[in-house]
């Protein structure tokens, strides 16, 4: 059996690539354009053209330097905590049964390792009969991609009648393999 990278790892890699390439698109002529090492170098009355030498840091960039730099730091935000799922309700569609999964605000913002699995366990507590082949994969696709592409989508629908497919096909078919979005 061939090992496939988890969908979340692929999503993280894609986001990282977007973030890194987006940072390169700044207009260098823009006054608020990219910062350079000399932008952060303070000047002193006797040394107006000083710049830090490689391997050293200037007082303005030192983590222990007093002043506005150290006082402006904030503690990291508290990561979102469960519950991640507000409801999981079975409904009928033109194609068959569908499980409408409604994420909480916390579920829309959770990206830590293990959050998708924890959210799926919440789904299974709300709808134990959802534990069928392909349902986790659809949920994981929605957890990873729908939150990026449609962050305010009220529900994610997962269906037991959809075929079990590769992660690549799952993504290519918008998390809805084998039929239209329900």
TrEMBL record:
Family annotation (InterPro entries): DUF2599 (IPR019719)
Region (Disordered) location: 23-86
Signal peptide (from-to): 1-25
Pfam families: DUF2599
Compositionally biased tracts (Low complexity): 23-75
UniProt xrefs under PROSITE patterns: PROKAR_LIPOPROTEIN
Keywords of this entry: Signal
Record flagged with keyword ATP-binding: no
Name of the protein described by the UniProt record: DUF2599 domain-containing protein
Natural source organism: Dietzia cinnamea
Lineage of source species: Bacteria, Bacillati, Actinomycetota, Actinomycetes, Mycobacteriales
């Amino acid at each position: 059996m061939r090992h496939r990278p988890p969908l979340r790892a692929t999503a993280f890699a894609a986001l990282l690539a977007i973030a890194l390439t987006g940072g390169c698109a700044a207009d260098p002529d823009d006054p608020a354009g990219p910062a350079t090492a000399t932008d952060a170098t303070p000047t002193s009355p006797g040394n107006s053209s000083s710049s830090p030498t490689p391997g050293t840091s200037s007082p303005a960039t030192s983590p222990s330097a007093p002043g506005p730099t150290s006082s402006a730091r904030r503690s990291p935000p508290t990561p979102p905590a469960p519950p991640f799922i507000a409801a999981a309700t079975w409904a009928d569609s033109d194609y068959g049964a569908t499980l409408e999964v409604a994420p909480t605000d916390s579920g829309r913002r959770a990206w830590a390792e293990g959050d998708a699995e924890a959210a799926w366990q919440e789904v299974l507590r709300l709808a134990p009969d959802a534990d069928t082949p392909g349902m986790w994969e659809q949920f994981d696709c929605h957890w990873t991609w729908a939150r990026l592409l449609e962050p305010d989508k009220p529900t994610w629908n997962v269906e037991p009648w959809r075929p079990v497919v590769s992660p690549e096909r799952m993504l290519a078919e918008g998390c809805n393999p084998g039929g239209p979005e329900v």
